[in-house]
Design brief:
It is built from 17 helices and no strands. By secondary structure, the chain is mainly alpha-helical. The protein is globular. 55% of the residues are buried.
Length: 443
C-alpha cells in the first residue's frame, strides 16, 4: 500500500536527516580504509631502501592487494546482503586494521606480498557493500551525490593522511628503535579497528531498523526505494544472481571500471615517489605529504560538484566519460612535462580530479538497472574485476621504471587505457532512464 503523498519539504528534510546521519560516519569508515590501503605509497620512500625492494618489487606488492580483493569481492558482498551491513562491515574493518598494523614486521619480499594479498582479501566487499547499502536508503535520483559525498573520503584521506604519513615517517623515525615506516603502519592501523567497533554500535542495517527515524520517515524511504525497484522491474531490469552475469552491460562496465582504476592506483601508489623526484630532499617526507595535499584537495571539491550536477540534470553517461577524459589529459601532461614541479602537480591534479569525479558518477550506471541479489553480485563483480586494474597499474609503472628509469612511457600507456574506458562508456547500451532534470534531487 502506498503512503500518502509527502510534501516536498518533508521529503527533503527526511533525506537531509538520513544524509547527515549516514554519510559522515560512512565517510569516516572509508577514510581509515583508504588510508590503510594506500599508505604503502609513503612507506615505500623509506621501506624500499631499508629492505632492498626494487621498483618492480614495490609495484607488484602494492598491486597484489587487488588480487585478494578480486577473489573475495563477490562472496563478501553477497554475505553482507544476507547477514546485514552492520556486522559484516565491522568484520571487514577490524580484520584489515589488524593486518595493516602487521606490516611493521615485514622483512622480506614474500611477507610484503603475502600481507598485501591478505589485506585485499580482508577489505573485499567494503566499498561495493557501501554502494549497495546506499541503495537501501536512497533512490537512483539522489544516489550520485550521496556516492560522491561518501567517496570524497578518498580525497580527504589523502589530504589529511599525506602530511600525517609524512610527519610520522619524518619525526617518529628511531623511536623505540623502530623506523618511521614501521610507526606509520602501526599508528594508521589502529583507527580501523576502533571505527570497526563503532560500526556495531552506530550503523543500522536499513531504514526499518533505524530507531532515529519516525514511522512516517521510514515509510517514505521504503516507498521511494520500492518505487525505484518497481521501475527497474517495469523496464525489464535485473534482480537475480544469474541476471547480473547474463547482462552484457555488467561486463562492459567492469571493463570501464578496470580502465579507470588502472590509472587511478598507478598514480595514487606512486604519487609520493613522483613528487619526491621533483627535487624534494630525500628525507623531507613532510614536504612530500604537504605537496600531495594539492591534487587531492582540488579533487574533493571537483567530485562533489560533478556528482551534484549529474543528479540535477539526470545525465550520467557524459558526466562519467567526460570526467575520465580529464584524467587522461592529466596523464598526458605527466608524460610530457618531465620534472617541472608546477606542471607535474597540475597533471596530478587533473588525474585525481578526473578519476574521482568519474567514479562518483560511474556507480549510478549499474545501480540504475540492477536491484536485489543482482545488485549485490553485479556491483561486487564490476568492482572486483575493475579493481584488478589496481594490480596492473602500479605493477606496470614499477616494471617500466625499472626497465627505462623513467615514467614517461608508463603515463602514455595509462592514457591509452583510460581512452578505452571513455569510448566504451559512450557506446554502452541504455543504463539510465531519466532523460531530463530531476526536480527532487538535493541541492
Amino acid at each position: 500500500m502506498a503512503i500518502q503523498p509527502a510534501s516536498p519539504q518533508f521529503e527533503e528534510a527526511t533525506y537531509r536527516k538520513v544524509g547527515l546521519r549516514l554519510i559522515p560516519f560512512l565517510f569516516l569508515c572509508y577514510i581509515v580504509a583508504f588510508l590503510d590501503r594506500v599508505n604503502v605509497g609513503f612507506a615505500k620512500l623509506q621501506m624500499a631502501p631499508d629492505l632492498g625492494f626494487s621498483d618492480t618489487v614495490y609495484g607488484f606488492g602494492a598491486g597484489i592487494f587487488f588480487i585478494g580483493y578480486f577473489i573475495f569481492e563477490v562472496p563478501s558482498n553477497v554475505i553482507l546482503e544476507k547477514v546485514g551491513a552492520k556486522l559484516w562491515i565491522a568484520r571487514i574493518m577490524i580484520t584489515w586494521g589488524i593486518l595493516s598494523a602487521c606490516f611493521m614486521f615485514v622483512k622480506t619480499e614474500f611477507w610484503f606480498y603475502t600481507l598485501r594479498f591478505l589485506l585485499g582479501a580482508a577489505e573485499a566487499g567494503f566499498f561495493p557493500g557501501i554502494i549497495l547499502y546506499l541503495t537501501y536508503w536512497f533512490p537512483a535520483s539522489r544516489r550520485a551525490k550521496m556516492t560522491a559525498l561518501f567517496m570524497t573520503a578518498i580525497a580527504i584521506s589523502n589530504v589529511v593522511g599525506a602530511p600525517i604519513s609524512g610527519g610520522i615517517m619524518e619525526f617518529a623515525d628511531g623511536l623505540n628503535g623502530w623506523r618511521g615506516w614501521q610507526w606509520l603502519f602501526l599508528l594508521e592501523g589502529i583507527p580501523s579497528v576502533l571505527v570497526g567497533v563503532l560500526v556495531i554500535l552506530l550503523l543500522d542495517d536499513g531504514p526499518l531498523k533505524a530507531k532515529w527515524l519516525t514511522t512516517e520517515e521510514k515509510d517514505l524511504l521504503i516507498e521511494r526505494v520500492g518505487q525505484d525497484n518497481a521501475a527497474k522491474a517495469a523496464h525489464g531490469d535485473r534482480h537475480s544472481l544469474l541476471d547480473a552475469f547474463r547482462d552484457g552491460r555488467v561486463w562492459a562496465l567492469a571493463v570501464v571500471y578496470f580502465c579507470g582504476v588502472v590509472g587511478f592506483y598507478a598514480v595514487n601508489f606512486w604519487m609520493p615517489t613522483i613528487i619526491q623526484e621533483l627535487g624534494i630532499e630525500k628525507h623531507d617526507y613532510l614536504k612530500v605529504g604537504l605537496l600531495s595535499m594539492i591534487p587531492w584537495g582540488v579533487a574533493a571539491v571537483a567530485m562533489v560538484v560533478v556528482g551534484s550536477h549529474s543528479d540535477r540534470t539526470g545525465e550520467r553517461r557524459w558526466h562519467t566519460a567526460g570526467s575520465l577524459l580529464v584524467a587522461v589529459a592529466g596523464m598526458l601532461v605527466l608524460a610530457t612535462v618531465g620534472h617541472n614541479t608546477v606542471l607535474s602537480i597540475a597533471g596530478l591534479t587533473l588525474v585525481t580530479s578526473g578519476i574521482l569525479s568519474w567514479v562518483g558518477c560511474f556507480w549510478s550506471l549499474p545501480t540504475a538497472f540492477l536491484s536485489g541479489t543482482a545488485a549485490a553480485a553485479g556491483i561486487a563483480w564490476i568492482n572486483s574485476v575493475g579493481n584488478l586494474g589496481g594490480h596492473f597499474g602500479p605493477d606496470m609503472i614499477g616494471r617500466i621504471r625499472t626497465a627505462t628509469h623513467s615514467t614517461e612511457m608508463a603515463f602514455y600507456a595509462l592514457a591509452v587505457v583510460g581512452l578505452v574506458g571513455v569510448v566504451i562508456t559512450l557506446l554502452l547500451p541504455r543504463t539510465e532512464r531519466t532523460p531530463g532534470p530531476v526536480s527532487n534531487a538535493p541541492h
